[in-house]
Amino acid sequence: MTFEQMTTEQKQKALADLREVKELFASRGWFPGTSGNLSVRVGDFDPEQFHFAITASGKDKTVHTPEDYLFVDKEGQAVEATKLKPSAETLIHCEIYRQTGAGAIFHVHTVFNSVISEWFWDRKSVPVDGVELIKAFNIWDEEAHIDIPIVSNFANIPQIVPEVTERLQPEIPGILLRKHGIYAWGATPFEAKRHLEAFEFIFEYVYRWELLNGRK
Description:
Helices cover 35% and strands 23% of the residues. By secondary structure, it is an alpha+beta fold.
């Protein structure tokens, strides 16, 4: 499906979903200093042709304006005439969509996700044992263990993409950038939101558990 074949309703639904989740996450303080980015895929998925709406670069996400979002293609290029620039990290969204076929991807910066990514950087993943919120990822094993991958954070975004490709795990709908934040995704905006909230709970849990056990 080309972008021109998509209905106005499909495009408006993506923008409405972004507005709703942006407002919620902003109320939690998850976009400090205009950081973070959100995207929702529009239309059918084909690894060789897909489109998504994404937050524009450098915008205050605590307010709503007509310049908050734009539509881009699988290369992260705008598909409509606009002066807006997509988020600087759009290429990471492109690769996650390409690899997973997700319906939405949400990226936020919090103290807990940034600190925990540095704490476990040497092992390149955050180990999590038996935390109830693992079930949010549809993992139902009793006392389940998961490892949330951490990848390098470079100023040159294309340099990050190959590492994201290499480290994605089908059963874990998220990936951490070192000292930077979490990317979480899902088949729908609701699922991506659920996954992100679960990750954030887990990061705070692991951080506090490390402190209680004297690992500082």
